[in-house]
Structures are given as structure tokens and as C-alpha cells.
Amino acid sequence: MEYTVKKLGQLAGVSTRTLRYYDEIGILKPARINSSGYRIYGQTEVDQLQQILFYRELGVNLETIKNMMMSPTFHLEDALKDHREKLLAKREQLDTLIKNVEKTIAEKEGRITMSNKEKFEGFKQKMINENEKKYGKEIREKYGEETVDHSNAKLMNMTEEEYEKVTKLAEDVMKTLGEAFQTGDPASDLAQKAAELHKQWLTFYWISYSKEAHAGLAQMYVDDERFTAYYDKEQPGMAEFLRDAIHIFTGVKG
Fold first, then answer.
1. pLDDT digit string (tens) for 230-251?
2. What residues make up the domain containing 184?
3. Which of 82, 199, 205, 243 has a CA positioned 20 to 30 A from the CA of residue 26?
4. Which pLDDT tens digit goes with each residue over 145-197?
5. Final residue belonging to a domain, choices 120, 140, 156
6. Confidence class of residue 58 from pLDDT cuts 50, 70 and 90?
7. d(CA 117, CA 65)
8. Residue 139 scores a pLDDT above 90
9. Quick one: which of 187, 181, 217, 220 has its CA closest to 199?
């Protein structure tokens, strides 16, 4: 079956303006242009639009979607399986938040008493899901499924006191790192203190600490532009500085 821009827009619930824009940027081209100058879309384009809308629902920008779908390694079946996993994770997060809200309502009405740990379960789950979305694939490939799952479980089971401590540690790492960066010496006492604080922060999430894993993670901060952007947002070059400080601290090259 074939569709005009108007009919495809009605079918998919998107505007004709959106479909024309997708054509302009090359992310969804019509199958052909008919003799009257109308864009005509076939089944292949319908399936492509479904994929685009799946990715958009997950918050992926159009440039990234285009690059993925035009890649020679892109496979529809694998993409659908990936969509399913992400949607299940999103549903789990929403279910957790809904339960959290329901418990809070019940507590306010005097029907139950919530622990402080329970009050923040939904937000912890949201944090886990966001981290999985951003870095899950790389982290799981590097450290394995069991390690990542255990780390997530440790976060969910953190007490209020532990959560406050690890949050404070993260702040201390960045503060000390910023001060150490001004010295320009990753071997300085201040830089080594930042590396030690970073180690303490990691132990709240990892099954067990190892110098090799710590050094490897530090190297990832430089190799992966998303991690680099996080550490370099205050001072360009801070990710490399932290990497160097950790490598000196551990005595291991990542």
C-alpha cells in the first residue's frame, strides 16, 4: 500500500510539516515522487517512520537517529529488540514512581508509614534508568552484566545515610579535582586526594574495588566523549587530568 504525505501523517499521528522536514534532512525520503509532484511512501518508509518515532519517544535526537539508521550495521530486528528493552525499563521506572506516589498518598492519609528509604526508591530507579540509557551498553561490555546489575542493586538498597554520604563524596571529588587541576600536577597531594575520594565514591557502587578496574574507568573518561564532557564542563582538560591522577594513584595504566 502507498501513502501520500497527508495520509501517512494521519496514519502515524504526525504533521505533514514533520514528514516534509524529515525528507529535507534526509532521514525519511519518499519512495517516489508521482507525476503530480506528490511524495509517495511505501511499506519500507512506513517501517522507517515507525523506527524514527520509537527513537524519538526515547529522547534520541534526529541526527543520531539518522546516523544509526543509515549505518550499514543497522538491523531492524535488533533495533526492535533494543526498543523493547528500553520501553520495559521505562515502564518499570513509571511503575516504581506510581507505587511511590500511591504509598505517599496512603501515608498522608494515615493508612501506612513509609520509611525514608521507600520515599526515594522511585528517584533512585530513575537515576539507574537514565544511566543505563546513556552509558549502559559501554559499561556492561567493559565490566559485565553481573557487575552492573550488582551496582544498581547497591544503589537501590542504599540507606538514607549512605545516599547522603555518596552524594557528598561526589561533590567532594569535583571540588578537590577542580582545586588540584589548578596546580597542573596530577601527582600533587591534592590530585592524589581527588583520586582517593574517587575510589571511595566507587566503592559505594562496585562489588569489589580493583586498581585495574579503577584505572580502566579513568581511561574511559577520556575515550568516551560523554564522560569527557561531564568532567570538562568546568575546565577543559579535567577528564585527562583525573585520568592521569588515577593512573598515578593506582600505579596502573588503563
1. 899 878 999 999 999 999 999 9
2. 160-250
3. 82
4. 767 777 777 777 777 778 789 889 999 999 999 999 999 999 999 999 999 99
5. 156
6. confident
7. 38
8. no
9. 217
Q: Look at residues 171, 156, 177, 151 and name the one whose alpha carbon lies nearest to residue 249.
A: 177
Query: Which is more confidently placed, 28 or 204?
Result: 28
Which residues sit opposite 40 in a β-bridge?
4, 32
- What are 21's three cell numbers? 522536514
The pLDDT value given to residue 121: 64
Residues pairing with 41 in the sheet: 3
Q: What is the DSSP string of the chain?
A: --EEHHHHHHHHT--HHHHHHHHHTTSS--SEE-TTS-EEE-HHHHHHHHHHHHHHHTT--HHHHHHHHHSTT--HHHHHHHHHHHHHHHHHHHHHHHHHHHHHHHHHTTS----HHHHTHHHHHHHHHHHHHHHHHHHHHHH-HHHHHHHHHHHHT--HHHHHHHHHHHHHHHHHHHHHHTTT-TTSHHHHHHHHHHHHHHTTT-SS--HHHHHHHHHHHHHSHHHHHHHHTTSTTHHHHHHHHHHHHHT---
Work out the percent of the chain whose per-residue pLDDT is above 90. 46
Would you say how long the chain is, in residues?
254
C-alpha cell at 136: 549502559
Whether residue 245 sits in one domain with residue 164: yes
Model-level pTM greater than 0.90? no
Among 156, 174, 195, identify where a domain stops.
Answer: 156
**Of the candidates 133, 139, 142, 193, the residue with the CA atom closest to the CA atom of residue 169:** 193
Q: Cell 549505518 maps to which residue?
A: 71
CATH number for position 169: 1.10.490.50
Tell me, yes or no, whether 149 and 172 share the same domain: no
